[in-house]
Design brief:
This protein is mainly alpha-helical. Helix content is 63%, strand content 7%. It has one domain: Winged helix-like DNA-binding domain superfamily/Winged helix DNA-binding domain (Arc Repressor Mutant, subunit A). It has 6 helices and 2 strands. The chain is elongated, with a radius of gyration of 19 Å. The N and C termini lie far apart (40 Å). This is DNA-binding transcriptional regulator, MarR family.
């Protein structure tokens, strides 16, 4: 496999708007590239996002809350949950304190799909990171901390 050449960065800009644009553009390209490494499992990006959200909720997520988190209308969330349930990836259970509601959780099949998805993307990324020199790796490690802080602001 030929080594991927990583272009040298352009001159750093002192213009905060240009810097913001370049950072957002690079982050978008990076996320799209990671998505391309997903194994083919026949799910839409909406379904994948919902599956990860349900998984991360720890079995306490209602369909209404899923809609809020995913920023979709409740009927769209209901259709997404139905598709995931039909594939055997999520299950519904009675809400522990409100008999009128249900909570969503992932099944063993859903957990396996999530694990395969993460493993494929992380394997690709680990291989790309290993191609970088120590200085670039150190810079990215520092950037991770900063990006985490920005994401939580």
């Amino acid at each position: 496999m030929p080594e991927t050449a990583i272009p040298a960065p352009r001159e750093l800009s002192t213009d905060p708007d240009e810097f913001a644009f370049r950072l957002r553009s690079a982050a978008g390209r990076f996320v799209r590239r990671l998505r391309a490494e997903r194994p083919e499992h026949g799910l839409t990006m909406t379904q994948i996002s919902a599956l990860f959200t349900i998984r991360n909720s720890g079995g306490t997520l209602t369909p209404r809350r899923l809609a809020e988190i995913e920023r979709v209308q409740p009927p769209a969330a209901t259709r997404t949950v139905a598709a995931l349930e039909e594939r055997g990836l999520v299950r519904r259970a009675p809400h522990p304190t409100d008999g009128r509601q249900i909570v969503l959780s992932t099944t063993a099949e859903g957990e396996a799909l999530i694990a395969a998805d993460r493993q494929a993307r992380e394997a690709w990324l680990a291989a790309r990171l290993a191609e970088l020199d120590e200085a670039d790796q150190a810079a990215l490690q520092a950037a991770v901390t900063i990006l985490d802080r920005l994401a939580r602001a």
